[in-house]
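User: hey, got a sec? need Cof-like hydrolase folded
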Amino acid sequence: MSSIRLIVSDIDGTILDQQHQVDPDLIELIPKLQEKKIPFILASARSPIGIAPIARRLGVHQEPIACYNGALIVKGEEILFEHSLNKDEIRTFLHRVEELDSSISINCYSGSVWFNSREDQWTQVEASITGETPQIQPLSQTLSDDALHLHKLLLIGDTQNIQELYQKLDPQEFPQTAFYLSKENYLEVTAKSVSKRDAVLELAAYYQVPLEQVMTIGDHFNDLPMIRLAGLGVAMGNAPEAVQKEAQVVTSSNQEHGVAKAIQEYVLSPSNK
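Assistant: Yep! Here you go:
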């Protein structure tokens, strides 16, 4: 195995424990990675505002962050890479949503701003998780603003309604748009070119690091593309068995300092110098 020169990690279920706290063992290791000039990059479905406090807590806030599963990669205020949704396809899709169930909460994300046309039980739950507050404005206004690049939609509703919507989607009707379930009642929508795999490719090119010297760490199915791609793909001990089977390495769970242990063993140990 080539020496690791770049680490890209998921956040929820990976560096955060079940109480949504950053692993203190990982915090202690970050200065050692920085001494070796090994960037530690956070990649998540979260927004820039949702990632920034975690990056500061870790001490990696000077590095890029990959937001919305890679739809937007920023370094401070600078946009390094972005992949926006096709608004024509989104208008067609949202018309179908309104026809099926007008109670579904439609959340639109552009850069650091979260838009919704109303405040409901679902926005309140999401706000309590992320610490963000939506900007309330008509959906038509959000979609008609040509200067506004949409990086992600998040649809939340009753599980049965979200599952029904997902099953009715015809991918051929939306060739530039990708849909996936991040929870049973959470439907996420991004440009088809967006994935953590592509984010790793862009970050590796940005740092001029070959893929065989990249380590990726994650705990769920949306992490699999980057786990498969990297020279060293690591699955958390709390990951589903199907995810663990495709990783080169399975570390301990997020409750047992899994990321810190993997970095210590495969990046910082004397045999990997």
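Quick note: The chain has two domains: 6-82+194-268, 87-191. Let me know if you need anything else on Cof-like hydrolase.
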